[in-house]
Amino acid sequence: MGCVNVKKQAKLRKKLTPSMTPVTGDSHKQNSDLPSSKPSDYEPLSFLGVGGFAEVIACKHLPTQSFRAQKKIPKSKIKSYHMHSLGILKEAYFLGSLNHPNILKFFEYFDDRDNFYLITEVCKGNSLYNLLVKSGKLSENKVQEIMFQVLQAVEYLHEKKIVHRDIKPENVLLTLSNGSCLKLSDFGSAEQMVKMNKLTGCFGSVFYLAPEVFKNEYDEKVDIWSCGVMIWVLITGKQPYDEIDFKSVKEKIEQKPLQPNQLELGGLSCDGMDLIKMMLEVDSRKRISAAEALKHKWFGDISKKHH
């Protein structure tokens, strides 16, 4: 889903419309024992949402009579950076390789002449963004519960050398409307770290971008910055910068990036302030990792429940 009131960054890249093959389950390779799905195998039920270049509907998979979510992506809107070197959508490539309780479950991926179709589980609770809009802002206990799950997903990704690059409330889906169980979604901007190389390119919603992104050399710590911004947004119920257009927000991040302060986060505990400061450390080399964040005392009671 797109970021509200922010102009989308123009990305001038060569379009690709390669010949596609289905991807099923946890494998990047087509399983010859499984029949290839097609759009007619899915009966549309209800509209779930729309993003910058895709729409998502709830549907019934007729062969199995199961309920799933179908993300339809027009091929006309696909750029080269959306594609993996293996010739499939990066989002399908990454989701097909992941298996974690806090990451959206992937079923299959196929295409027709005009569109790509990515099939995942349905999350009935809508998105964290919708919960935030409905609530105005969230309690510290609720934010702790949410962020512990998000960081578990991020830790898992980083262990696999995968950087999400677009962590924000819109991309956190709730399996229950109260937000007690959630899934990280939308891997269209994800990329894999190769050996010790840094990543380049500007991806994601500008409000959540780390300062080093604009230096065009960064690593997985950009996800931690995004998580820190998300804590700020969930606690305050406000966007992190007063500016709304891409250029102005970019300049603000470069010159005076978001930093925690008691005035804006007055209701946050000392432990919470300590963690968010570590996550919004401008020097990415000193920024806390997902694994370290999960061990922080702010998550003390929640962490005990998960061990």
From TrEMBL:
Keyword set includes Kinase: no
Xref: SMART domains: S_TKc
Segments of this protein annotated with the region Disordered? 1-40
Q: Which domain of life is it from?
A: Eukaryota
Q: Which UniProt keywords apply?
A: ATP-binding, Nucleotide-binding
Output the Gene Ontology cellular-component terms.
nucleus
Domain (Protein kinase) spans: 42-299
User: Does the record carry ATP-binding as a key word?
Assistant: yes
Q: Which GO terms describe its molecular function?
A: ATP binding; protein kinase activity
Q: Which residues cross the membrane?
A: none
Q: Which InterPro entries match?
A: Kinase-like_dom_sf (IPR011009), Prot_kinase_dom (IPR000719), Ser/Thr_kinase_AS (IPR008271)
> What is said about its interaction partners and assembly?
Monomer.
Question: Any idea what this protein is called?
Answer: Protein kinase domain-containing protein
List the source organism. Stentor coeruleus
